[in-house]
Amino acid sequence: MPFAHITGWGISVPEPILTNDDIAKMVDTNDEWIRDRTGIRERHIAREDQSTSTLAVEAAIKALQVANLAPTDLDLIIVTSSSPEYIFPATACLVQDQIGATKAGAFDLLAACSGFIYAVNMAAQSIRSGSIKNALVIGSETLSRFVNWKDRNTCILFGDGAGAFVLQASDQPGGVLSAVMHSDGSGADSLTLLGGGARHPATELTVHEGKHFVQMDGKAVFRFATRVMGAATKEALELAGLTTADVDWVIPHQANFRIIETAAKYLKMPMDKFVVNVDRYGNTSTASIPIAAVEAVEKGQLKAGHKIVFVGFGAGLTWGALAAEWTGPMPAKKHVHPEQYRLFARLRSLLRRALRYIEGLLSRREL
Ligand code: ACO
After folding, report:
1. What's the distance, CA 163 to chain centroid?
2. 245-269: per-residue pLDDT in tens?
3. Cα–Cα distance, 143 to 155 (Å, whole number)
4. What is the CATH number of the domain that holds 114?
5. Ligand 1 pocket, CB under 6 A
6. C-alpha distances in angstroms, 233 versus 58, 267, 272, 290?
7. Is residue 107 situated within a structural domain?
8. Which domain holds residue 247?
C-alpha cells in the first residue's frame, strides 16, 4: 500500500494589512481588548482584484514548484473553503482550469475551519488506496467579504489568505500517519452564514437582515474548541502509535491564542512546541494550518523527518486532527516550471470558451 507524502507547499497572502487600531476606527473596540482576548494584532485583507480562487491559484503554483510537479501530473484537486468563490461551480474547478491541471478531477470540500484536515485526509486516503498518485489540497479564504464590518464580535477575528499542499504516493514509509474527523451538528447554530442557500435564498430581506454575514456565538465556540482540540490531538497520536513525547510540532488552527494555550495545557506540552502566528494573520479558517506550516518550514523550524500534528475545529460543528511525518520534495527527474503551464492554461481556456460559443451559434442556426 503506497504512503501519502506531503512533498510541496505554498501560501498566498494579500499584502494589505488591517491592524487592530484600524478596526477601532470602524467599531467600538481597541487594540488591547483584541490582543488580550484573541492574541490577534493584525490580519491581511484581499484587494478588490483578489478572491478565493486567485489566492488559491497563487498558493497552488508555489506548492507545485516546491514539489517540482507539473500541473498535468495532478490526479485530484480539493479546495476547502468557508468563503468559496461561488456556491457552484466549485472553486477547485476554477483552479484546475487556471493552473492547467488537465487530467485532474476537482471538487470543493466544506468542513469550515476543519476543512484542511478533512481535505488532506481525503487526498491521503485516495493515494493510500492506490486510486491516485498526485493530489493538490488548498485551503483558501476571503472571509473579509462575508464579515459584517459593523459587528465587533466577529469582524476583529478573521483574515484572508491561502495555503496549499501537494501530496504524492511513495513506497517509502512516512507522510500522513493517521487522522480523526468529527462533527456535531447539534451545535450548528453557534457559527453560521445563513443567507444565499436553499433555506434563505437571497432576497432584499435577507440582505437587510444581514443573513449574508458570519454570525457567531463566540462563547459557545470557545467552550467547544477548548474541549475538543487536545482530545482530538491525543486521538490522532494514539492511532499513529505515537505519544506527545514523539511530537516535534503541533500546528493548530489559528483562531485564538487562548484556545491554543488551553490545548497545550490539556496535552501537558510546552507552548514552544506549538506553531502560532494568529497574531499576524487572525483566523484564516481553512488556510490557517497550511499558512502556519509553511511559515514554520521557511523559518527552518519544521524539517524533514519531524513528527507533526495538525488540529482544528470550526463551524458545523466540526473538528479533527491529523498526524504526519514531514517529508519534503521527492528527488526530481527533471526540472519543472508550473508557472509556464499557467500561460498555456489561459490560452487553452480561452480557446475552449471560443469553441463553446461557436458551437452554440451553429446549433442555434440548425434549429
Ligand atoms: N471589543 C471590545 N469589546 C468587545 C468586543 C470587541 N471586539 N467584542 C465583544 N466585546 C464585549 C462584549 O460585548 C462583552 O461585553 P459585556 O460583558 O458588556 O456584554 C465583553 O466584551 C465580553 O465578551 P465575550 O464575548 O464574553 O468575550 P470573550 O472573552 O468570550 O471573547 C471571542 C470573545 C474573542 C469572540 C471569544 O469568545 C472567541 O475567540 N471565541 C471563539 C471564536 C472562534 O474561534 N471562531 C472561529 C471558529 S472557526 C470557523 O469555523 C470559522
Report:
1. 6
2. 999 999 999 999 999 999 999 999 9
3. 10
4. 3.40.47.10
5. 29, 33-34, 37-38, 82, 112-113, 152-153, 156-157, 191, 216, 218-219, 221-222, 225, 255-256, 283, 285, 314-315
6. 30, 8, 16, 17
7. yes
8. 3-325
